[in-house]
Design a protein that fits this description.
143 residues, OB fold (Dihydrolipoamide Acetyltransferase, E2P), five-stranded mixed beta barrel, 1 helix, 6% helix
Length: 143
């Protein structure tokens, strides 16, 4: 089973492009942080950077809604691809997104949307849908 779930902040505006075959793709750099206290009582923090790849409708969501600083929830799978750059063989580890959710603060006054597997889903303001983002998260909605 290859399932990845990440929640973090976008480090820079996404790179959006269209392939020769006409498919839209978005590459997003997502930072996730972990905080802990070591044995000496010192506060520690580590930030990891992940490349998220979104295709089709998910790329549209990224193009419309995601900017540097946006908080995202991503569900997908790890993919490894080999390529050559300036004559050297390289390997890239990426997360192929199957679900994206823009996490917005309650006080932002904006309604968020997500896309899963190519379907757009947006909460209806009167729907009573009050599902939350993944457990342990700050106020926001999961769509």
């Amino acid at each position: 089973m290859n399932i990845v779930m990440l929640r973090g902040n976008v480090g820079q505006d996404a790179e959006i492009r269209t392939t020769n075959g006409g498919d839209k793709v978005a590459n997003v750099r997502l930072a996730t942080s972990e905080k802990w206290t070591d044995k000496q009582g010192e506060a520690r923090e580590r930030t990891d950077w992940h490349t998220i790849v979104a295709w089709g409708w998910l790329a549209d969501l990224v193009d419309e809604r995601v900017r540097q600083g946006t908080e995202l929830f991503v569900r997908g799978s790890i993919q490894v691809r080999a390529f050559e750059h300036q004559g050297q063989k390289r390997t890239a580890v990426e997360v192929k997104a199957v679900e994206l959710a823009v996490i917005e603060r309650r006080d932002s006054g904006h309604q968020a949307a997500t896309r899963r597997g190519g379907e757009r889903q947006a909460p209806d303001a009167g729907s009573g849908d009050d599902r939350r983002a993944p457990s342990g998260s700050s106020p926001g909605r999961r769509w």
